[in-house]
Amino acid sequence: MPDPMAVLGHHRGLLLASCTAELAVDRAARVLPASLRELAVFRTATRIGCSWCVDFGTMLQRDAGLDVARLREIDDHRTSPRFTELDRLVVEYADAMTELPVRVTDEQVAELDRRLGHRGLLELTYLIALENQRTRMNHALGLTAQGFASGEACRVPMP
């Protein structure tokens, strides 16, 4: 069982609320390509330092057939050929949203809106904010990697 769910199991109402919200977001967040969605979420997890989220996010990207090798180069996203110009904008937006205080600029929002459309920008913003919530909770509770990325943990069934 994923550790965050085991921890939330101590508060049945929050477990139910969290599972319901995660399923709803998974069904609703389909405007952006999976590669951009997962890149933004992964970057947020790395910026906060949640090893559980990085581990689980790597597994999700691998299972979706995305390029997980590029994740090792995420800190070099500005120069790595594995990242497109749009990838770079998404990573920098995730960085700006994750900073304290938040340092998102009007120019970032305008450029992402132009490239992704209103719904794409809203989806991106929501997913980064949601990952901030997840990672900060997991990090605060001391949850660490369970071995999902390496295959050492029991596999989470994917639809």
Tell me what the structure shows.
With 159 residues, this protein is an all-alpha fold. It is built from 6 helices and no strands. The protein has a single domain, classed as Up-down Bundle (AhpD-like). The chain has helices spanning 3-8, 12-28, 34-48, 51-63, 85-98, 106-140. α3 (34-48) crosses α6 (106-140) and α5 (85-98) packs across α6 (106-140). The longest helix is centred in the C-terminal third of the chain and has 35 residues, at 106-140. The chain is globular and about 45 Å long.
Give the key terms:
globular, 159 residues, AhpD-like, single chain, mainly alpha
Largest sheet: none
What's the Cα radius of gyration? 15 Å
Oligomer: single chain
Quick check: average pLDDT?
94
> What is the helical fraction, as a range of percent?
55-70%
Instruction: Give the second-level CATH assignment, the architecture.
Output: Up-down Bundle
- Sheet-strand content, in percent, reads under 5%
| N-to-C series of helices and strands | HHHHHH
**C-alpha geometry:** globular
List unreliable stretches of 5+ residues: none
Tell me the number of strands. Answer: 0
Structural class based on helices, strands and sheet pairing: mainly alpha
